[in-house]
Amino acid sequence: MQRSTLLRGTAVTGAVAIALTLTSCAGSAAETAPSAADMEIGSVDLSADCPSTVVIQTDWNPEAEHGHLYEMIKDNFTIDANTKAVTGPLMSDGEYTGVNLEIRAGGPAIGFQTVSAQMYQDDSITLGYVSTDEAIQLSSTTPTKAVFAPLDISPTMVMWDPATYPDVQTIQDVKPALEKNKGVWRYFDGSAYIEYLKSSGLASSDVLDGSYDGTPSNFVAAGGKDMQQGFASAEPYVYQNEVSAWGKPVKFALIHDAGWQTYQSSVSVKADKFDELSPCLSKLVPVLQKAGVAYYKDPSAANDLILKLVDEYATGWTYTQGVADYSVKTQKELGLVGDGPDSTYGNFDDGRFEDFFAKASKVYTDLGTPPASGYTVGDLYTNEFIDKSISF
Questions:
Q1: pLDDT tens digits, residue range 278-330?
Q2: Of 281, 264, 325, 323, which is closest to residue 115 (Cα–Cα)?
Q3: Which of 50, 186, 277, 359 could covalently link to 212 via disulfide, CB atoms 3.0 to 4.6 Å apart?
């Protein structure tokens, strides 16, 4: 799933210093920190089943959508600004789990390649953020299996100027409105959801423009005539409050509501490492669930770390306290994060996955990149490690 270069992200997308609370190594390689062996392990002990450092590759720069990860190291960390990674003792409910957590930035930090490709190039990566559509498309070359869904609904949306398009409310309204006003829907070229919308009659070549580069310039220059791809949990705030040339509200509709219901940024393992990592995942996945619930209850400390990392990584990505606060609020209000249709946080809905697999398989087959021969839904995800008692 592609994202905006400067406002969001593009993806088709150090060791622990025990005595320190906040450690920064900006501008240099991460310092060698002392061992975490002296920390007392709490009720969750990952040391026997997980790597000594659990490495998670994200799909973009640090942001609130990744907050559940930073929640686990928010009070004690080491930053490596050169490699765009942060490491700390992996904590659960305030207790040490016996291992460290390293969170790596994606997007520009990995040359804008897919997380799947990065995982297969670097064996030190334990888990990565892989959206369902990416997992299906790349199942023949870099197969992955999802074990935890931090986001229930993808934030990907199309946005427009409500003054220009007062009658547009849903994606069903977009195509006729653009045809009438001779505007375009600007998006990242190669976005699979666009192909789905075209096949569903909700978009057509005459209103589509795949030249979106992530900057606001073309949207602003069009004066409200054009519509544009974005994230519902960021761009509406950014365009109204931080793009001075626009400085007014936009409205939006989620792509999810049009039927393209991918699981965005699912925490996944390489398919060939699934069996080996299963003992670890049985203990680690509930820790991830708890961290997500804790983050959305009080995101302040993790967001402080996110903002610090954005500043020290200095990739050109800008992210403010206002965007972080808006993101958390909007994710909860729109149900982008939450328990979904049941009472469990972080699991996958079987029926929804079946439906999406059928839709995405057709789209990618039509594009010439079909899923691996014999691939089934069961190859793509599992709920076996999910603790059903953990919810919002």
A1: 999 999 999 999 999 999 999 999 999 999 999 999 998 899 999 999 999 99
A2: 264
A3: 186
> Six-digit token pair at 108?
């520009």
CB-based contacts of 187: which residues, under 8 Å, 6+ apart? 158, 194, 208, 209, 210, 212, 228, 229
Q: Identify the pLDDT of residue 190.
A: 80
As given in the structure block, the two tokens for residue 189 are 């070229």
| Distance, first Cα to last Cα, the chain | 26
- The structure's pTM equals 0.90
Q: What is the pLDDT of residues 200-230, one digit of tens each?
A: 999 999 999 999 988 899 999 999 999 999 9
What is the DSSP pairing of strand 95-104 with strand 53-57? parallel
What is the gyration radius of the CA atoms in the chain, in angstroms?
21
Report the percent of the chain where pLDDT is more than 90: 86
Under 8 Å CB-to-CB from 14, ≥6 apart: which residues? 25, 30, 31, 32, 33, 78, 79, 80, 85, 86, 87, 102
3-state secondary structure the chain: CCCCCCCCCCCCCCCCCCCCCEECCCCCCCCCCCCCCCCCECCCCCCCCCCCEEEEECCCCCCHHHHHHHCCCCCCEEEECCCCEEEEEEEECCEEEEEEEEEECCHHHHCCCCHHHHHHHCCCCCEEEECHHHHHHCCCCCCEEEEECCCCCCCEEEEECCCCCCCCCCHHHHHHHHHHHCCCEECECCCHHHHHHHHCCCCCHHHEECECCCCCHHHHHCCCCCEEEEECCCHHHHHHHCCCCCCCCCEEEEHHHHCCCCCCCEEEEEHHHHHHHHHHHHHHHHHHHHHHHHHHHCCHHHHHHHHHHHHHHCCCCCCCHHHHHHHHHHHHHCCCCCCCCCCCCCCCCHHHHHHHHHHHHHHHHHCCCCCCCCCCHHHCECCCCCCCCCCC
